Amino acid sequence: MLRVVFITGISGSGKSVALRTLEDAGYNCVDNLPVRFLHDFIAAAHDEGLQRVGVSIDARSSGAIASLPGTINALRALGTEIRVVFLDADTGTLVQRYSESRRRHPLTDKLFHEGVAPSVEACIAHERELLGPLRELGHVIDTTGLTPSQLRSWVRNVVQADTVPLVLTFESFAFKESVPLDADLMFDVRCLPNPHYDPVLRPLTGRDAPVANFLAAIPSVGRMIDDIAAFIRTWLPEYMQDTRSYLTVAIGCTGGTHRSVYVVEQLAAMFAGQGQVLVRHRAQKQFDLYDPGGGPTEAPPLARP
User: Fold this and answer.
1) Which residues sit in the known binding site for ATP?
2) Are 56 and 8 spatial neighbours (Cβ–Cβ below 8 Å)?
3) Of 179, 154, 191, nearest to 169 (Cα)?
4) Computed from CA positions of residues 98, 99, 104, 110, in that sequence, does the dihedral angle turn out positive or negative?
5) Annotated binding site, which residues?
């Protein structure tokens, strides 16, 4: 069966890096394919016996973007396996990237001809509006703060996980660094006791046994994890029934080092049998396919009331 991965998203968020990653993974890739040629391209790929195809579509095809969701649904109805990866980043990061690269935003001329001052911020805002429907079609990756090598790791994990019905991602983050844009569900664990205030635990992370032991002994930590897990178990079937292929659960604490990391590791272990599980620790720059044998040193059982 032909597998098609669409790379789309906001300009400057890393689509070129993602497309090159697909090429390295053996995909036949096309950059900025006009939407009107999509049917013919997929048909030709079928005829040539290709198994993996990557297509990048962005705001430069603005005139036909509105029809793309319908086109993708029609192709899926014909039996084509299609995954959509939407890349995004916060506006400040995108502006900085354009400033460093000294490149023009691809919508600059369009806004100028429409009588709008084509600042980078205005172009980004217009692009978000144009691509909004595509964001709902697939897996969102927030590239804010990521290096190209880290983004390549994330994309490789998504591609490797494409053979299962649902990709469930647990992601830890630091509220002081802002909320991740790729979160479908978000939980705040800052109310839990913070190992940061223990000088011995401060330099460690939630993946280290001393921190895991500290948190596992606190009943409220266990209750928080149980409540989050119960919510996910209750609603996960509904997300899957909605033909969703990806669900990202973000867990945040102040520094993204101890509590959120520990909770993510525990949840990943609990849901290891629910499709493909990915683990991301933004503050630690760790992005992995979950390996039940590769987590932190085993902690004692969670304390329960």
Assistant:
1) 9-16
2) yes
3) 154
4) positive
5) 9-16, 58-61
The mean pLDDT value for 148-174 works out to 79
Task: Locate 92 and state its tokens.
Answer: 């400040």
What is each CA distance from 21 to 131, 153, 303, in whole angstroms?
22, 9, 43
Nearest-angstrom CA–CA distance, 261 and 55: 34
The 10s digit of each residue's pLDDT in 163-173 is 556 789 999 99
For the whole model, what pTM was predicted? 0.65
Tokens linked to 294: 């590769």
Cα atoms in the 13 Å half-sphere on the side-chain side of 43 = 6
User: What's the burial of 178, exposed, middle or buried (CB within 10 Å: 0-12/13-18/19+)?
Assistant: middle
Q: Which position has the token pair 């793309």? A: 68
Binding residues for GTP: 58-61
> Quick one: which H or E segment has residue 254?
none
- Three-state DSSP at 177 gives helix
**Minimum mean pLDDT among 122-126, 131-135, 211-215, 267-271: which range?**
131-135
Dump strand ranges (E) for the chain.
Answer: 3-9, 28-31, 52-56, 81-88, 139-142, 167-174, 185-188, 246-253, 276-281, 286-289
Q: What is the pLDDT of residues 37-48, one digit of tens each?
A: 888 888 899 889
Distance of CA 64 to the CA centre of its chain: 25
CA dihedral 27, 30, 34, 40 (to 10 degrees): -60
